[in-house]
Amino acid sequence: MHHANHFYGHAHVLARYCGLDEQTPPRIFGYLQHGWNIGDGLAPGTPFVDGSPLFLWSERTRQRSWSLGRRDTVVVGAPFAYLLSMEPVAGERREGTIYYPFHGWEGQKVSGDHRALIDLIRSTEDGPVTICLYWQEYGMRRVRAVYERAGFRVICHGGRGHWWRGTDPRFLYKQLAELRKHQRVASNRLSSAVLYGALAGCEPAVYGDPMTLRGEDPMFGGVARMRRTWPQLHGPHLDLDAARAAARDELGADRLLTPVELRELLGWTAEVLSLAEVAT
């Protein structure tokens, strides 16, 4: 199993959906897309073994992947969409906005004016605002303090994990619970979080300085391409029907498989798992 298959507890969610032990998900025989992107579903620079199946969230991503030469691609839908199907709405009262400032990854840092972003959020949003930081920025006291001093509630959903360590298997559960508390979801870049929020019933928005990421790979076209390709998902106030339709499409929410189908594709049939157990 590629360690990225564990990111955000994705393998754990899919194991639960398939009726397996979500605490110790089996090895996935292939690479599972772990975040929304505008490329082929793989993070730039990801080591990839030719011939390994690539499990992608949506048909649009599969088409992009195909155009870049990858042939072993299968659309399975986003793990978040499977979680949503297993966690019924409990009548939560929605209020305010949850905003996700663009974040970096391990070894990378974001440069931008957080105070200017705070001013824009204040002038755009009605009601209380929750700022959700990535674990890396949340651990930077100077970044967290800027939002706390502004009077915002500041949270973190947990650790993404790396090399099978530090993964919070409840990450998506925490994220879904927070999204269902809020009327709106917003960010300064189109991201998984905005799409998740739209799918979970929030009003999505993308506005503000997209900031810059040190060492950002421009091979897929970056922010400019995002805005050209998904204009219906950019702006402080969107056409909700168009935005939510785009989110469903990008997350493959209409392409979810049955537990039996998913077990077959991921290599989680009883026969395969028994052989793997013997081999170890």
Summed up:
The chain is of the alpha/beta class and 280 residues long. It is built from twelve helices and ten strands.
Could you explain the architecture of this structure?
Helix 2 links the parallel strand 2 and strand 3. This protein folds into two domains: 3-86 and 253-279, no CATH class; 97-251, Rossmann fold. It contains twelve helices and ten strands. With 280 residues, the protein is an alpha/beta fold. The strands form three sheets. A five-stranded parallel sheet has the order 7-6-4-8-9, sandwiched between helices. Strands 1-2-3 form a three-stranded parallel sheet, covered by helices on one side. A two-stranded antiparallel ribbon has the order 5-10. The two termini are 14 Å apart.
According to CATH, what is the class of the largest domain?
A: Alpha Beta
CATH topology of the largest domain: Rossmann fold
| Helix proportion range | 25-40%
Number of strands: 10
3D shape: globular
User: CA-to-CA gap between the ends?
Assistant: 14 Å
Major β-sheet profile: 5 strands, parallel
Structural class: alpha/beta
Calculate Rg over CA atoms. Answer: 19 Å
Proportion of strand residues: 5-15%
Q: Give me the oligomer status.
A: single chain
- Spans of at least 5 consecutive residues whose pLDDT stays below 50 are none
